């Protein structure tokens, strides 16, 4: 009997020259719980962001999947908040 080695779901995004097969399906998408973990938000928050279109996702039958490349493009384009106001307030505490 052949045993399978578990494969991490957090596989790097395939490059443009990759060819997808049925076996590569999990390498092409994240599940919503995986996205929640990557963003350090609750599952409910991640599902809400997917349903409202804040996170790029596709409906596959009854489940949502988040294309890895689209997710990372979206994440890279998301502005980082200016923390100078927080730092200025924190410096007043001492």
Task: Point out poorly predicted stretches.
Answer: none
Mean pLDDT: 77
Write out the strand line-up for the largest beta sheet, numbering strands in chain order.
Answer: 1-3-2
For the biggest sheet, the summary is: 3 strands, antiparallel
Strand content: 5-15%
Radius of gyration: 18 Å
Order of helices and strands: HEHHEEHH
In summary, what is this structure?
The protein is an alpha+beta fold and 94 residues long. Helices cover 41% and strands 12% of the residues.
Overall description:
41% of the residues lie in helices and 12% in strands. The protein is α+β, with helices and mostly antiparallel strands and 94 residues long. A three-stranded antiparallel β-sheet has the order 1-3-2. The radius of gyration is 18 Å and the shape is globular. The N and C termini lie far apart (65 Å). The model has no long low-confidence stretch (mean pLDDT 77).
């Amino acid at each position: 009997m052949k045993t399978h080695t578990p494969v991490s779901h957090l596989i790097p995004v395939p490059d443009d020259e990759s060819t997808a097969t049925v076996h590569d399906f999990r390498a092409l998408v994240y599940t919503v719980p995986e996205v929640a973990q990557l963003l350090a938000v609750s599952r409910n928050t991640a599902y809400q962001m997917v349903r409202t279109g804040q996170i790029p996702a596709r409906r596959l039958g009854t489940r949502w999947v988040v294309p890895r490349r689209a997710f990372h493009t979206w994440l890279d384009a998301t502005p980082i908040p200016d923390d100078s106001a927080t730092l200025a307030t924190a410096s007043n505490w001492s």
